[in-house]
Structures are given as structure tokens and as C-alpha cells.
Specification:
About 35% of the residues lie in helices and about 25% in strands. It contains seven helices and ten strands. Strands 6-7-8-3-9-10 form a six-stranded mixed sheet, with helices on both faces. A four-stranded antiparallel sheet has the order 2-1-4-5, covered by helices on one side.
Length: about 230
């Protein structure tokens, strides 16, 4: 594995529209994510934090600049190669749990392994282990509507982790939860970061949740205006 940091953005911009309608969602930002780091991205709506997360996750492409993943220039990869990078190295957790309603918790967790072609028995074993790790081993056969919001987000985290990604990208992971459930989810993410060494980049608008991170990057008008230690 390359000694390069997992993520290095250099002069990355992402523009939408043109002329008078031009929007600079990102404006020539530099950003490095180190191995095992837990970063929180904060800022007002439209500041660029979610766009930065989407660029890192290969869900959006920079208009200009360099994005290197472990030293590999992502902007030079084909669409299929970027898809493989997402599947094999990145895990995603969103504000909406995005669980399939007519399937059980374990079947939801199995889904990314199905896309990777993992054999059925191994899929089931790894998915059950992932649910056990997030404290839902006894809820494997429950559909999402039989789970609380916090439990559904735990299923979503298990699904993100079951592929053993190098980086977990979390976009407002506590946005739909009450305070108690939010704390449970943040403690779970912090434990995964500490115990498994998984790198986490999280967008949040909640200062209390950001304190779980190693560092906070504050975005404004498409730029990173400060790096703070909680």
C-alpha cells in the first residue's frame, strides 16, 4: 500500500453553471486526510462541505484541481474505475438511512457484498458479524419498520463497514435522530475509529457531534477558512 495519505485534494474547485449563474461550490481548496483520522466538516448551508465529501466519495467530479487517493490521480480514472474505488475502499452513511423496507436488517447489510460477488455463505457470516459489532446481533431478522431510528442508522453503519472500507464518509449521520440516539451513533463511530483505525470524514451542522472528531474543518463560500481541534 502506498505511503501517501488516503486523500489529498490540491487546488480542487467545483463549479456549477456559468456566467452570471456561476456557483463556486468549492474554490481551489487544499485538503489532506491522514490515515486513521476522524475529520468533521462544518459550515453554513452552501459552504461547500457536502460537495467536498461528494468529491472525496467519487460521487462528484472536480471542475479543476487534483484529487489523489493513495497517490493515484482519481481525476484520470474512468467512470468504471471510480466505481470500483467506491465499492472497494469507501463506505457511506447518510442522514436518510436508505434501507430497503421489505428486507431484513441482515439482508440490507449483505447488499454491497452481493455487488462485490461475495459468495452467499460468506455474505451472511460477514453481515451477521457486522450487525453484532454495532450491537444489533439480536435484530438481524427484523425489517427496518420494526427498528428505531437509531437502530436503523446502526444497520446503515454495519452496511457501510461490511465491505471493510478504508474510509467511512458520513453525511449528517445524526441529522434524523434525537439527542440520545445521536450520542449513541457518535460513540459508535468514535469506537470504530479508535478500535479499527478506520478513517472517518463526517459532515455535520451540530457542534456537539463534531467534538467526537480529531479536527474540525470550517467551510465558508467554497473555501476552508479554519482547522480547529475540538
Amino acid at each position: 500500500m502506498s505511503d501517501e495519505p488516503p486523500v489529498r485534494l490540491a487546488g480542487v474547485s467545483r463549479h456549477y453553471g456559468e456566467g452570471d449563474a456561476l456557483v463556486k461550490a468549492l474554490d481551489a481548496i487544499d485538503l489532506v486526510v491522514e490515515q486513521g483520522e476522524f475529520l468533521a466538516l462544518m459550515g453554513p448551508s452552501g459552504s461547500g462541505k457536502s460537495t467536498a465529501l461528494n468529491v472525496i466519495g467519487c460521487l462528484d467530479e472536480p471542475t479543476s484541481g487534483s484529487y489523489r487517493f493513495r497517490g493515484v490521480e482519481v481525476t484520470e480514472l474512468t467512470r468504471d474505475q471510480r466505481s470500483l474505488l467506491r465499492r472497494n475502499y469507501l463506505g457511506f452513511v447518510f442522514q436518510g438511512f436508505n434501507l430497503l423496507p421489505r428486507t431484513t436488517a441482515v439482508e440490507n447489510v449483505e447488499l454491497p457484498l452481493l455487488y462485490l460477488g461475495v459468495p452467499a455463505r460468506e455474505r451472511r457470516d460477514r453481515s451477521l458479524a457486522a450487525l453484532e459489532e454495532v450491537g444489533l446481533g439480536n435484530r438481524a431478522d427484523h425489517p427496518p419498520n420494526a427498528l428505531s431510528g437509531g437502530q436503523q442508522q446502526r444497520v446503515a453503519i454495519a452496511r457501510a463497514l461490511v465491505t471493510r472500507p478504508e474510509i467511512l464518509l458520513a453525511d449528517e449521520p445524526t441529522g434524523n435522530l434525537d439527542t440520545a440516539r445521536s450520542v449513541e451513533i457518535m460513540e459508535l463511530l468514535a469506537r470504530m475509529n479508535a478500535d479499527r483505525g478506520i478513517t472517518i470524514v463526517m459532515v455535520t451542522h451540530e457542534p456537539d457531534m463534531a467534538t467526537y472528531a480529531d479536527a474540525i474543518l470550517r467551510f465558508r463560500d467554497g473555501r476552508i477558512e479554519a482547522r480547529e481541534t475540538p
